[in-house]
Protein 1
Amino acid sequence: MDFGIAGRKAIVGGASAGLGKACAMSLAREGVEVTIVARTPANIEAAADQIRAATGARVTPVAADITTDEGRAAVLNACPEPDIIVNNSGGPPSGNFRDWDRDAWIAALNGNMLAAVFMIKDTVDGMIARKFGRIVNITSSAVKAPISILGLSNGARSGLTGFVAGVSREVAKHNVTINNLLPGDFDTERHKSNTEAMARVQNRTYEEMKAIRIAQVAAGRFGEPAELGEYCAFLCSVQAGFITGQNLLIDGGKYPGTF
């Protein structure tokens, strides 16, 4: 299927590894010019080289902290008129809510809610004027089924979900869609660190905790980042113009509910 987005321009956050890199790779394969963002220069440069080699696409790496005004300005200077935004940021630390002070909560809100809100604010009117826009926020399955040790993430990402529920309906008539992807258990470094944290809390080994988590997934395995990347690319396609304001759970059947 031709997604009809060749030649479009995209900004992808947290793209030096994991799910963000997978989304950038899938968009690049569709002929999208991607500006990829992460904080560490060496890592984002290496990711750019890998995406170029695999796809032949134009890739612009930007080393910036997307949670700051200066970081967002640097990204938008590199790609001033994006057609596609993939908001993606590493989650805040796991732990017990009794140990988190105000600063911890502000950092979580800034990283997993406000950064995406301000990126949407900075780009959506241009998309409206050009009559095309696709915004995908990579959140978490914890929005649907909260995870006890991820209280900071549960709260901040749910806040973004509420914001998107409203603004997505305001802009849909302009062929601008905003959706959230809720990844479940994907084989990433972030997932590994969360598994290690769960193992410590339950006094288990990492391998024991990993086996328990796999057993909870109906598919019997963790997801591959490329699988989420392809789903993201479809949401950015011309064919997906009638999908907006949705929270799309990709978890291999782990969530047991009907709705």
Note: The helical segments are 18-29, 41-55, 69-78, 102-130, 151-171, 189-201, 206-215, 225-235.
Protein 2
Amino acid sequence: MKKKTEEKNPRLGKVGGQALLEGIMMRSGDEIAISVRAMDGTVRSKKTKFVSLRQKHKILNIPFIRGMISFVESLVMSYQTMNTAVDMLGIEEEETKFEKWLKKKFGANLMDVLMPIAMVLGVFLALGIFVFLPTLIASWVAIPFGGDIGIWKSAIEGILKVVIFVAYMLLISLMPDIKRTFEYHGAEHKSIFCYESGEELTVENVKKYKRFHPRCGTSFMFVMIIIGIIIGFILPTDMNTILRGFCKVLLLPVTMGIGFEFLMYAGKHDNFLIRALSAPGLWMQRITTKEPDDGQIEVAIKSLKLAMPEQFPNEEMLAPDPNPASPSEKAEA
């Protein structure tokens, strides 16, 4: 008689998060909770809602398309939650004359103006560094060999992408603020693992769990790089360098779609194949996650519980929210 197939853990994939400056955002369904360790040492929390376009329009929830939608929404949500977390920290800074002028003329502070510009510039910089630069360097390497080295060109591009990505992560991890954020990243993963295991969410229980999670943004980025390398092997190697770069940019939606489907599957399954395919992303998390302290774990637990009111109905804010969400913020996004 065949053994009955084990029932999948219903808690897998129910909650996800993002490390912030001195805090953590947790999301479960359309519930979003942000908790930070404020300058006065208290934990401040804020709740809001975010309803994905995939829920509003079913056609956007079909495989591969939902990956592109999720990626764009993640960027928007990341920008919003980072701004909110900074406001919640309670950092008091005197406004400069330029900031006062901006507020008077446009009703906005300096960060409201600079952050969107920085995000756009960051996207173009990322495309330049991770897409066009490896393609350009590979074309230079091919010159002594007559300009055509076949699939070796794609192999060189792939190696350069991985080297650039790892080097970038290592460099930013040396910054004190980023190191602190990576510690909160570790607290986020540990608390999610503890929840998924069914254990009570206490500091001592959370500390026991590992900080490497297969359904992590770092893993997603690494998966995208690997898929991008595979796509590079499909493109003609004798293509013009600039055209080849633009083709890779145009194929990014395909890369995002495949990467998203893989991570969703990996987050809900645990077998040899998934562990092997997830390994590179998990290795990268040795850089992007650090062991958290008890205070950081407390923030992670608070955020997770607030994001799941049905399972933790008695959870309350530890400190008054200095910037309560407006009705428009709580409306469906």
Note: The longest helix spans residues 110-142.
Protein 3
Amino acid sequence: MRILRSVALILTFCTIPVFGQLRPVVDTVVASPNATQSLPDHKIVPNDLLSITVTDEPGLSKVVRVGEDGTVSMPKLAPVKVEGLLPREVEAEISRQLVAEQLLIHPAVGVAIQDYAQRMISVVGDVKVPGQYPISTLITLMEALAKAGWTTQEAGSELIFSKSATDAPRRINIVQLQTTADPSINVTLTGGEVINVPDALKIWVTGNVTKPQAVPIRNPGDATVLKAVASAEGLTQYYGRIAYIYRPDENGVRREIPVPLFEIVHHKKQDVPLLADDILLIPDDNGTKRRILLDMLKGMTGAGATSAIIYGLK
């Protein structure tokens, strides 16, 4: 009886390691305690430099640059497609393959971006140095504008931002961009983005002003008759008392709107707002004879001047 019990105990202890070795492989992903990221996450692209660590498996750990085909090579594994994945997604994919190839039961994989591939951003429109700029690290929208020398005087109050040439654009207020730390406004660029700074909306001032010109409107409410005249460096000596705004209607036909310019200038009536694409015409006061008279008086004295004045009055 004692012999049978001893044999039974021996069989029991001898079979335990055998059953342990037959335990089925389980696809369990364990985060590596050594997984660190030297640079912030982004979707991986060709030429990114990755650090791939497999805990306690130095033969499987390596620093590798992503190939042009979007894959990385790993010891004992087929090429791993990583393009378009985040580092944590690459960790899961490598772990899955290590388990599938029965190389490890509980792989602990860490993936970190060591260096970004050099990528291009485009800054165009009303900036001082438009063009394409290479970036090898993440930069902000403000930093991208700084690379292009910032905006010109012709720039509008908004820029148009797209994540790529085919992405739906969004408008961002430039003044707000300068005064906020909100990352949804001062967005982080990873490469491929397009930044377009369009012209400011304009009004046109012409006629009897010192410098007829197109006047940019950078903010709503900036444009009024007096401000437009000031931008054109003031009125000439013979401006008419009534000015005219020519404003397009819903059909694109310009309608004439009279403006009491003389009374606005002398603060007898309220200033009149202008809209984008308005034309402000300051007509002549029809004082042609008066100007002829004044021209005649230049350098004249005595009887000649008197005759000219009488002629002018007539």
Note: Residues 7-37, 301-306, 308-314 have pLDDT under 50 and may be disordered.
